[in-house]
Write a structure and sequence with these properties.
315 residues; alpha+beta; Jelly Rolls; Arc Repressor Mutant, subunit A; six-stranded mixed sheet; four-stranded antiparallel sheet; 10 helices; 19% strand; globular
Length: 315
């Protein structure tokens, strides 16, 4: 019988649901054992992207076949077979296929676990060895197995995976011990005191970005401007532009329009309202403009999209 903390996924199973701040709603593991191991098989021709999201869990990934492209802020990281990768807690990220791998299969494994798996948040261990990384550590770390320490980290990861798959006693205890050993090997790589000031700025930028995203989610149907979005985080328009460019690779208004278009897609499939009514309800007061930007984004006019979607559901 497959253990509860082991999950096999394909592109059909990927459904990232987030709250207003892009925090992933799904729990990885359980409250009593906040750990999950995934084996994932993606056919990139059938999956556009694993969209922007973040979670409190730390994520450790190994590419077993093919390639994957990860976006974090204004960084684009392409990972190939044999590469390993760790994403820090609270970091907004997105996965998609690299350009020349759009028609290929990608297989990777990953583990996600809360920082409290290593030690309770009130403990000395957490204070000395976990909080510094979660609060001030690098947002991500790529390992290409070219250095001896990288190979050691990969071997420790394989040890944890082996424990997950083995049918023996003390599994949860051995997993926790494996994570602690992995953490001890990564601590000095992930955390540098001299980077604390820079990382504090990065954490502040992400907090501001989430506030502005939440404002957009709450007010997208209204007439809002760049100034309104910036004001929601108590920053200037230029600072808002930098936050979105660094964190989401778009502008605040670009993100607002994308969000409005995706909400319009949902309404076109779920309601019997006119295109004009739906356009106005998601914040577009010019129906002709709505028609043009919708077609540019999705390849169909709103009417064509609604008709096609309803036909597919009736089959």
């Amino acid at each position: 019988m497959q253990r509860d903390f082991i999950t096999v996924l394909t592109e059909k199973d990927v459904n990232i649901v987030t709250d207003e701040t892009l925090r992933e709603i799904k729990r990885h593991g359980t409250e009593r054992f906040p750990f999950q191991y995934y084996k994932e098989h993606f056919n990139w021709s059938r999956l556009e992207a694993v969209e922007w999201h973040w979670h409190r869990e730390l994520e450790f990934v190994e590419i077993l076949q093919g390639a994957i492209e990860c976006h974090i802020g204004d960084e684009t990281i392409v990972l190939h077979e044999g590469d390993t990768f760790i994403i820090n807690s609270g970091v907004i990220h997105k996965y998609q296929a690299p350009q020349k791998y759009r028609e290929e299969q990608c297989v990777f494994s990953d583990i996600l676990f809360l920082p409290e798996m290593i030690a309770p948040s009130s403990s000395l261990i957490y204070e000395k060895y976990v909080r510094p990384i979660v609060q001030h550590g690098k947002p991500f770390l790529v390992m290409h197995q070219t250095e001896s320490w990288e190979r050691e980290v990969c071997e420790l990861y394989h040890h944890i995976v082996t424990i997950c798959l083995a049918e023996n006693d003390l599994t949860e205890l051995r997993i926790q011990a494996g994570i602690s050993e992995l953490w001890a090997r990564l601590f000095h790589v992930l955390y540098r005191e001299e980077t604390e000031q820079w990382e504090n700025k990065n954490i502040l930028a992400q907090a501001r970005l989430r506030k502005m995203m939440q404002f957009i989610w709450d007010h997208f149907a209204e007439k809002i401007t760049l100034d309104d979005i910036a004001h929601s985080a108590n920053i200037s328009k230029s600072a808002a532009l930098r936050c979105f460019r660094s964190g989401m690779q778009t502008s605040p208004v670009g993100y607002l329009n994308d969000y409005r278009l995706h909400r319009a897609k949902e309404l076109l499939l779920a309601s019997h309202g006119t295109v004009s009514d739906i356009a106005v309800s998601v914040g577009f007061d010019n129906v002709g403009y709505f028609d043009r930007v919708f077609r540019r984004a999705f390849g169909l006019t709103p009417k064509q999209f609604a008709k096609q979607g309803k036909l597919e559901r009736s089959v």
